[in-house]
Amino acid sequence: MKDALYFLKLLADETRLKIIMMLSRRDMCVCQIMAELNMSQPAVSHHLRILKKSGIVQDDKDGRWVFYSLHKKFFAQHLASNNDFFDKISDNLENRQNHRDYDACRRIENVVHSCVKTK
Fold first, then answer.
1. Which residues pair with 59 in a beta bridge?
2. Residue 43: which residues within 8 A CB-CB, separation 6 or more?
């Protein structure tokens, strides 16, 4: 569950999601990403550092240039593991109980209410 949460947090940022989409099409250097996103170099580098630290993005130094690419195997593994997470939710929705346990709610309510009275 923690892996799914971490991965989804990485994708929840619009800039990182845009960078991932761009790198899924081709390798790019920071200058190209800056130009496409119309962002400063420090801002782009910050997001790339987060993505690189997570393992989703890798870099390759080519002369004086550093090109960034999506780490295909790592990204695919995370997509697959998160797909399992969403499949479980989907299965739960398919097989969920339509019964509401009012007795359980009353029991919990009584316990909470009695704890409040004793304080």
1. 68
2. 15
Tell if the pTM clears 0.85, that is, is over it: no
Q: What's the token pair of residue 115?
A: 């704890």
Domain of residue 51: give its range: 1-119
Q: What CATH number has the domain bearing residue 6? A: 1.10.10.10
- The 10s digit of each residue's pLDDT in 47-102 is 999 999 989 899 999 888 899 999 888 877 877 777 777 777 777 777 777 776 77
pLDDT tens-digit profile of 15-41? 999 999 999 999 999 999 999 999 999
Domain count, the chain: 1
Q: What tokens does 79 get?
A: 């997509």
H and E: helices and strands count for the chain = 6, 3
